User: Fold this.
Amino acid sequence: MRCSTDGHLGAVVLDAARGDRLARFPAARSVSPAVVFLQPDLRAKILMTDTHWDRRPLPQPAIEPPAVSLARTLARTGLSLQGGDLVAAP
Assistant:
């Protein structure tokens, strides 16, 4: 996936394989244009403006099983899972 300004202020998310635009996020006019490249391994992103660039790490996905992650989240937040319906949107 690649994010770029696409000639506009804001960001455009492109499909890396096909180049199709997946989403566009416009920004306020006070924001300076920036280009964001995601590294293929998704460990970092590179931000570039007209005057600066920076490489920033991205949060990595959890490697623990989903049940362990859910239990930890419920314990941390004090919430409880009472059940629910799984539905798919068209």
About this structure: The longest strand covers residues 21-26. The chain has one helix and six strands.
